[in-house]
Amino acid sequence: MEFKFNLEENKEKIQEFRDFIKENRDKQGVLMPVLQEAQVKFGYLPNEILEIVSKDLNIPLSEIYGVATFYSQFTFIPKGENNISVCLGTACYVKGAEKVLAEIENVLGIKCGGTTPDLKFSITPTRCIGACGLAPVININDDTHGKLKPEDIKAIIEKYR
């Protein structure tokens, strides 16, 4: 699924971002800070913003994509209003995290790493959230839900709709 970035709605942010590029364009290694600024300002790296980076820094788009895809901190998919972090660490995995994740994917209709079309939910895999005694566990935003079974998921997600 491709998300449409609205240039008109983001006009002010885009101008601030272009000002940031202008202030920093002559610095050594400018691409990384520019991509980081874009990620912070827009929440992800929309194609339209990467085209602006390419034009304003005179760097081929292919090179920008090469850098952005190399580092895991960058994403091309916007995060949802509610981010569901699913622990897949050893304790959670052994206690059924895979089945919990499958049910989250089923309820939301998206795969792990994705965002719902309405931008309400994202699913992010994590390795350990430090709540092994509650395994399997998920975090939704700042809320921890533990000792989960697949049949618990629908009711938990409904609280965030």
TrEMBL record:
Pfam families: 2Fe-2S_thioredx. Binds 1 [2Fe-2S] cluster. Coiled coil: none annotated. Its cofactor is [2Fe-2S] cluster. Belongs to the complex I 24 kDa subunit family. Keywords: 2Fe-2S, Iron, Iron-sulfur, Metal-binding, Oxidoreductase. This is NADH-quinone oxidoreductase subunit NuoE. GO terms for molecular function: 2 iron, 2 sulfur cluster binding; metal ion binding; oxidoreductase activity. Its EC number is 1.6.5.11. It comes from Tissierella pigra. It is an enzyme of class 1 (oxidoreductase). [2Fe-2S] cluster binds at residues 87, 92, 128, 132.
